[in-house]
Amino acid sequence: MPISRFSHPTRLLATLGLIYATSALAEESPEHRQHGAHEHGHATLDFVQEGATVNLVFKTPAANIIGFEYRPQTDEQKQTLANAIMQLKQGETLFKFPADAKCVQMSVDVKSELTEEEERETHSEFTATYVFQCAQPSDLQSLQLDLFKAFPLTEEIDGQLVTDHTQSGFELSPDKPSVKF
Q: Residue 22: pLDDT above 50?
């Protein structure tokens, strides 16, 4: 069995930190400014695989998910927010791994300023963090996103991919909703 480059949790955390730092720097560069973290229609996805464990971090403006970015005022808006959070928690319907990899969602954490008690004037976002366990990680060679179907206001997802075998960036859209690795 090959030694994983993430054989220690500190390495995994360092890799995630590097991904976030790289993403932040890319957003500041002129050629990437139009695809900043908070441009409506655009989102980011970080994919980190260590052995049988896959960690996904999906970050998107609230407008991509619910159509607005302010604290819900009406019962309809409150229900829209609650439905969106419930849908975001269903990672197995949003992220499709190859069937042979036998990946199962182990946990999910969805956060948004819209669910906090403190009122803020901000461009609200959602950050959803998923952990999957794959019984056959050697069959983990692609990822299909059904996020575009679930949240049609999302037009593009810029991603970072770190696996036991490769590191790369990718860009997904409704016309190209999958990445191979």
A: no
